[in-house]
Design a protein that fits this description.
Blueprint lengths: L9 H24 L11 H31 L1 H8 L5 H13 L5 H9 L3 H7 L5 H6 L8 H15 L3 H26 L1
Helix pairs in contact: 3-4, 3-5, 4-5, 8-9
Length: 190
Amino acid sequence: MNSSPYVPDAARRARHASRTIAVVLLVAVWSLAWPADAHASLMSPEVEDAMAMYLSYFIVFFVPVVLITLFWMVHVLPEKIAHKRHHPQFEAIRTLCLLSLVFGGLLWPIAWLWAYTKPVGYKLAYGTDKHPDYFKEHGLPEPESPTTDIRQRVAALEASGASATELDAIRTDLALLESRLAGVARSEVR
């Protein structure tokens, strides 16, 4: 037989279990014998009523305000992102965010994706992929059209002293693009 002090034998375990059961039964009988002494709460009924009243005021008035504020903040997030990134279609993203509030958030993922996209078609049409406020904030002249913007860049290159061969290549490419744009404009008119 193993007489190690760390491993109790079966008899000790059985006695311990029987003592535990006896204590639990004694506590149960005692609590059933004196039900007037048992309380469901640690507080008096008046304190419970006061806490319930304040908790109900908090839940009825404060929680909805916080939830509505969080809902609003999440739904204007794409607008803030578009403004920060100087997205040229910022007003449209703002409108989509407000519509998303009306439709319960269904349009919000579209506004979120739109705020992070780079508008390639916009740059082709207007010559820039920045909102006009970007140019005002940084003190830059607002580009009038794509060809005017390119001509301004060529003039800036001339002023900086770029090589004549590079400038001639850029001018040739610019003339080719202008003729293509004029041909496309004529075909759209017909």
